[in-house]
Design brief:
187 residues, mainly alpha, Arc Repressor Mutant, subunit A, 8 helices, Rna Polymerase Sigma Factor, Chain: A
Length: 187
């Protein structure tokens, strides 16, 4: 085993112990491998980025199950491949369900998709509730969520705004979304 492999195993051990810096280090080290793999599979930058973020999220959730006798990059790519297969199945199912339900009468069934007054009220109430939950997060998590979802900034724009590396922004956003989901779930 060489020094790089030892260092990687030490980083994985720290990640298993819940050290945030170890997660950032693993994300920095393997992001391009997973993203490049997905970009070749999907031929779509948005899908590749979404699947890559989901890959790291799932991997970090299940990091304690990683077996050191296997390559970490292979484990990540396997998770990523399975997420992509799930996405394809879901899209295929949605298309088939839409065809079965529509019976090819889409031309005759043009629905008004603009929100009704009730829909607008529900949207406003949900937004107010979501903003209340976001305010329970630490300020740096609030900032990254606001920049990404309310200001619709890209990762690189947020990185420039906060003067941090793009991968740190991705990890912060991932962590912020997890914490927000926990707050909402425990409500």
């Amino acid at each position: 085993m060489n020094k790089t492999e030892d260092n990687l195993l030490e980083t994985i051990a720290r990640a298993k112990a819940g050290k945030q810096i170890a997660f950032s280090s693993l994300l920095d080290r393997f992001w391009n491998d997973v993203y490049g793999f997905q970009l070749k599979r999907t031929n779509n930058e948005n899908d590749a980025e979404d699947i890559t973020v989901q890959t790291f999220s799932k991997a970090f959730d299940k990091i304690k199950t990683f077996d050191e006798k296997y390559e970490f990059s292979t484990w990540l790519i396997t998770i990523s491949k399975n997420l992509h297969v799930d996405l394809i199945r879901k899209r295929k199912k949605n298309i088939l369900t839409g065809l079965e339900n529509g019976k090819n009468n889409e031309v005759h069934n043009v629905a008004d998709e603009s929100p009704s007054a009730e829909d607008n009220l529900i949207i406003e109430q949900n937004l107010a509730s979501l903003l209340g939950h976001i305010k329970k997060l630490k300020p740096h998590y609030q900032k990254v969520i606001n920049l990404r979802y309310f200001n619709e900034m890209s990762y690189s724009e947020i990185a420039n705004e906060l003067n941090e590396p793009v991968n740190n922004i991705k990890v912060k956003l991932l962590r912020a979304k997890k914490l927000l989901a926990e707050i909402i779930k425990n409500k």
